[in-house]
Amino acid sequence: MKIEGTEIVDTYAEAFPIWLSRIIITADSLELAMVAATEATGFATSTIMCPCEAGIERYYSPAETPDGRPGVSIFICTARKSMKENVSARISQCVLTAATASAFDGFPDAKTRYHIKMHYFGDSYESRCIVGGRKCWKIPIMEGDYIGEESFGAVKGIAGGNFLIMGEDRQSALKAAQAAVEAIKNREGIITGFPGGIVASGSKVASKNYRFPMSASTNHRFCPTLKDKIEDSLVPDGVNSIYEIVINGTDEEVIAGAMRDGILAAVKEEGILYIDAGNYDGKLGTNNFYLHEILKDSV
């Protein structure tokens, strides 16, 4: 299959189940909400070494938020048992401390729920209040009052939908990767949690050559500088730079849609020779996204 002259490899992306919480962060301006959201999603690219995966989902207009202020939603992605700890830490350390910010539950209808206890920060000076029909806490702080929810929902989701952009040089591959991220940002149901939405150093499960245990190591078969040094290279001729786009989301449909639109944006850029995907022979996950199936109506 070719689109815009770019070869779409007949392969699939391998993803895995994960739990998601959506936090709606509001503030007096969208800029201030983004500051808090950016802090709250830091050090959360991959569960390989980070305590969770996280990213910015989309912007919210004042008409969409409980307190009538502009907002930004984020996803926290982790195991169900770890969700409360991760959300509590990120709200208390990154939202409570941010100017004018508040945090509200983005999955109010979720059956799986947990409660953080941030109101104790108020040292008994806190009080209950209602905001937009929601039960909240008002905590006195130096700025004035922090107001937010403490009950949050979690739903089952998917992590690790992905595609690889293979370019003739780094400049063309990077430009295509940026175009792909731009095409799918601010979209309901998905995040691209790596820096700028782009992965420069994709990994494989465990290690091939070291004897000591490693959870991940460089995906050597997709490293262009190794293609003439190793026998199992998967880097095609002419490719000198590869970037990966990794997508977490609420379900297969939204992830597949984001993969499709991201790929279609990437192949419009010059110098993109192949689109591939990362899979690990079933060692990582159970959700498979087949590139030709996703793109069959786009040819």
From TrEMBL:
SUPFAM superfamilies per UniProt: Formylmethanofuran:tetrahydromethanopterin formyltransferase
Gene Ontology MF, one: formylmethanofuran-tetrahydromethanopterin N-formyltransferase activity
Family: Belongs to the FTR family.
Cellular location(s): Cytoplasm
Pfam families cross-referenced by the UniProt entry: FTR, FTR_C
Residue ranges of domain Formylmethanofuran: tetrahydromethanopterin formyltransferase Ftr N-terminal in the record: 1-141
Swiss-Prot/TrEMBL catalytic activity: N-formylmethanofuran + 5,6,7,8-tetrahydromethanopterin + H(+) = N(5)-formyl-5,6,7,8-tetrahydromethanopterin + methanofuran
Pathway this chain belongs to: One-carbon metabolism; methanogenesis from CO(2); 5,10-methenyl-5,6,7,8-tetrahydromethanopterin from CO(2): step 2/3
Cytoplasm in keyword set: yes
InterPro entries per the UniProt record, alphabetical: ForMFR_H4MPT_ForTrfase, ForMFR_H4MPT_ForTrfase_C, ForMFR_H4MPT_ForTrfase_fd-like, ForMFR_H4MPT_ForTrfase_N
Annotated keywords: Acyltransferase, Cytoplasm, Methanogenesis, One-carbon metabolism, Transferase
UniProt xrefs under Gene3D superfamilies: 3.30.70.520
Gene of this entry: ftr
Subunit (UniProt): Homotetramer.
GO biological process: one example: methanogenesis, from carbon dioxide
Enzyme Commission no: 2.3.1.101
HAMAP family: FTR
Protein name in the entry: Formylmethanofuran--tetrahydromethanopterin formyltransferase
UniProt function note: Catalyzes the reversible transfer of a formyl group from formylmethanofuran (formyl-MFR) to tetrahydromethanopterin (H(4)MPT) to produce 5-formyl tetrahydromethanopterin (5-formyl-H(4)MPT) and methanofuran (MFR).
GO cellular component labels: cytoplasm
Domain Formylmethanofuran: tetrahydromethanopterin formyltransferase Ftr C-terminal: from-to ranges: 144-294
